[in-house]
Structure formats: structure tokens, C-alpha cells
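Reopening this ticket.

The earlier resolution said the output was attached, but the attachment link was broken on my side. Pasting everything inline this time so it's all in one place.
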Amino acid sequence: MIMSFSVTVFAEELPAAPVDVAEDEQPVYLTGYVKVNDGANLRQGPSISSTPLHWLPKYTTFHVLGITVLESGETWYYVYVTSGNFAVRYGYLRKDVVTIN
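Inline output:
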């Protein structure tokens, strides 16, 4: 029997900042941008068969809120889009179409 699975880590589940971090400092999350010339589809779920929510042009920036690694080894980032004027700001981007800073 073959079982499929995915591992998803959301920012809310990440360990708290070390105790010696000043109270006024905010946690730092991963950021990135779309790297492919053709842009990328922001998707509803972590799959190329998932519904595209919005097309994002090259250099669109985002914050990574979660990471999903599928059994196949494919990695997807759950992101919040920070640049541009898009109606939909939350969705999934595949690892190979983005650069993480």
C-alpha cells in the first residue's frame, strides 16, 4: 500500500523568538520574489492542478507563511503577496518559480 502525505509548517507553529530578543523586535519571516520571466500562478493549494487564483509577474514580492513538502519531494510555499495591486494576496507558489531571500 502506497500512502501519500505532505508536511506543512505554518509560521504560527514556528518556535518563539529566543528570550534575549528585545520585546520591540518583530520576528523575521522568509521573503522572496517570483523569478521566472513568464511569471507564476498563485494557487489555491500546493499542486499544479489546484485552481490558479492570480497570475503574478516576475519580481512580485511575498512573505512565506508556510512550507509544504509533498511525498514527491516537491516544495510549495504558502505566501502573502506584498507587492502589486492584487485582489487575492494569499496562496501557494512552487519552489522552482521563486527565489527566497
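Reporter confirms the inline version is readable. The radius of gyration is 15 Å. The longest strand covers residues 61-70.
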